Automatic annotation (TrEMBL):
<keyword id="KW-0808">Transferase</keyword>
<keyword id="KW-0695">RNA-directed DNA polymerase</keyword>
<protein>
    <submittedName>
        <fullName>RNA-directed DNA polymerase (Reverse transcriptase)</fullName>
    </submittedName>
</protein>
<dbReference type="InterPro" id="IPR043502">
    <property type="entry name" value="DNA/RNA_pol_sf"/>
</dbReference>
<keyword id="KW-0548">Nucleotidyltransferase</keyword>
<dbReference type="GO" id="GO:0003964">
    <property type="term" value="F:RNA-directed DNA polymerase activity"/>
</dbReference>
<dbReference type="InterPro" id="IPR051083">
    <property type="entry name" value="GrpII_Intron_Splice-Mob/Def"/>
</dbReference>
Amino acid sequence: METGLVRIAEIARQNPKERFTALIHHINHETLKECHLEISGSKASGVDQVTKQAYEENLEANIADLIGRMKRQAYKPQPVRRVYIPKEGSNKRRPLGIPSYEDKLVQKGLARILNTIYEQDFLDCSFGFGYLYNFV
C-alpha cells in the first residue's frame, strides 16, 4: 500500500483539484493486517462483542472474508454501540460510539488513504488548518 499512497500523495500535491474516485483497491490483505497490529487490544468491543484477540484467532481467514465482502460490495458496517460515560467535573454523561472490530479495521485503512490525500493541503506551519482556511 505504501507505494500506492506515495503515488496518491504526488498526484494530490501536483494537482490540488484532482478528484480521486477509485481508492478502495488500496485496502488489501497486507494493509488490513497492518491496521490490525496498530489497533490497541484494550479497546472496547462493538455491538458484535468481537475483540482484537478473538478476531486474531482466525486472522487470515477473517481478513480474506472481509476483503471478499468489500470487493463484491457486500460489506456493511455494523451499528455503533452507544455507551454513556460521565463528564469530568459534572454529574452529566456524554455519548460515546464504539464501532465493531472489523469496522475499526476498515476505518483505519480508509483514514490512511484520506490522510495521504488531504495532508498535501496543509502547510508546515499549520496545525490542523489547511491552506484553504488560512485567510491571512
